[in-house]
C-alpha cells in the first residue's frame, strides 16, 4: 500500500520540483516530547514534502502566471497549498490530512517540527548541538539545521501529508545520509547557520548537485512584502 501511495505522490509532485519521503507517525513521536506528538496511531503512514531548487521554475512561476489575480498571501505558500490540494484529489477513497510548515497551534507551537520529520523520514540529516562532541558555545542558544545529501541547504521542508486510514506495520525506516560527518564541519555548519545565516554560506557546507538560481536567491533575499513585485504582482 505504501509503495502505491508513494508512486502516485511522486508522479504528481516530482515533475514540479518536489520530493516526498515516507515515515510512520510513531518514528516522529518517539523522538519528541509529548507536547509535540502528532495525534495519530504510531503506524499511520505519512510523507514529508520538500521543495528542491527546481520548484521555483517548475511550479512557482507557472502557478503565479496562471493564478496571479487570486494571489493574496505568500506566493510560495499558496503555490504549495495549490498543488497539494490537487494531490488530495488523487486519493478520492482516502482521507488525507495536510499540515503546512508555517501552521501553528493556539499555543504558538508549530503544528509539526519540519526538520525532525525530514530526519526520521531519511530525507535530510538534522544536525543539532548534540551532534558536536566538544561544544564550543557555552550558554549560547544554538539552533539545528537540516542538510540534504544532494542539495545541501538549498531546499525547504514544505508540508506533512498524513493518511489516517493507512497503517503500515512493516514500513522500513530510511536513515538520513550523514553528509557533514566531521566534528569540524558540524561546528562550521552550526556557526554559519546560527550567526551568519544571512550570507547563506551554510547551504554550501557540502558539494551540492544543484542550488537556487540567481533569480530565486534574489527572491528569497527580498523582504516578503516586496516579493510580489519581483513576480510581477501587485499587492
Task: Write structural notes for this entry.
This protein is α+β, with helices and mostly antiparallel strands and 235 residues long. It has helices at residues 2-13, 25-30, 55-67, 75-89, 114-120, 183-195, 214-221, 224-230; strands at 18-24, 44-51, 97-100, 125-127, 145-147, 156-167. The chain has 8 helices and 6 strands; from the N terminus they run H-E-H-E-H-H-E-H-E-E-E-H-H-H. The mean pLDDT is 95. It has one domain (1-231). Helix content is 34%, strand content 16%. InterPro entries: MMACHC.
Unreliable residue runs: none
Distance between the termini: 44 Å
Mean pLDDT value: 95
Strands of the widest sheet, in order across it, are: 1-2-6-3
Helix content: 25-40%
Cα-based radius of gyration, to the nearest Å: 18 Å
- Give me the strand/helix succession: HEHEHHEHEEEHHH
Dominant shape? globular
Structural class: alpha+beta
Oligomer: single chain
Binned strand content: 15-25%
- Number of helical segments? 8
Total tally of structural domains: 1
Largest sheet: 4 strands, antiparallel
What's the total number of strands?
6
Protein name: Cyanocobalamin reductase / alkylcobalamin dealkylase
Family: Belongs to the MMACHC family.
GO cellular component, one term: cytoplasm
Subcellular location: Cytoplasm
Structure characteristics:
235 residues; 4-stranded antiparallel β-sheet; two-stranded antiparallel sheet; 34% helix; 16% strand; flavoprotein; cobalt; MMACHC; NADP
Amino acid at each position: 500500500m505504501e509503495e502505491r501511495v508513494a508512486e502516485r505522490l511522486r508522479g504528481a509532485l516530482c515533475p514540479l520540483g518536489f520530493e516526498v519521503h515516507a515515515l510512520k507517525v510513531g518514528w516522529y513521536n518517539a523522538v519528541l516530547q509529548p507536547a509535540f506528538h502528532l495525534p495519530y496511531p504510531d503506524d499511520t503512514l505519512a510523507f514529508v514534502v520538500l521543495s528542491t531548487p527546481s520548484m521555483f521554475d517548475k511550479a512557482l512561476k507557472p502557478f503565479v502566471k496562471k493564478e496571479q489575480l487570486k494571489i493574496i498571501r505568500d506566493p510560495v505558500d499558496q503555490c504549495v497549498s495549490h498543488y497539494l490540494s490537487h494531490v488530495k484529489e488523487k486519493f478520492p477513497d482516502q482521507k488525507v490530512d495536510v499540515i503546512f510548515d508555517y501552521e501553528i497551534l493556539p499555543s504558538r507551537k508549530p503544528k509539526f517540527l519540519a526538520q525532525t520529520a525530514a530526519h526520521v523520514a531519511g530525507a535530510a540529516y538534522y544536525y543539532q548541538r548534540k551532534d558536536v562532541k566538544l561544544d564550543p558555545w557555552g550558554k549560547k542558544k544554538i539552533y539545528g539545521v537540516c542538510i540534504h545529501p544532494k542539495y545541501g541547504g538549498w531546499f525547504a521542508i514544505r508540508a506533512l501529508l498524513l493518511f489516517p486510514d493507512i497503517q503500515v506495520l512493516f514500513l522500513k525506516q530510511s536513515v538520513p545520509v550523514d553528509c557533514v560527518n566531521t566534528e569540524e564541519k558540524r561546528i562550521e555548519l552550526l556557526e554559519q547557520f546560527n550567526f551568519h545565516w544571512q550570507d547563506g554560506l551554510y547551504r554550501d557546507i557540502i558539494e551540492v548537485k544543484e542550488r537556487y538560481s540567481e533569480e530565486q536567491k534574489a527572491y528569497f533575499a527580498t523582504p516578503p512584502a516586496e516579493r510580489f513585485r519581483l513576480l510581477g504582482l501587485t499587492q
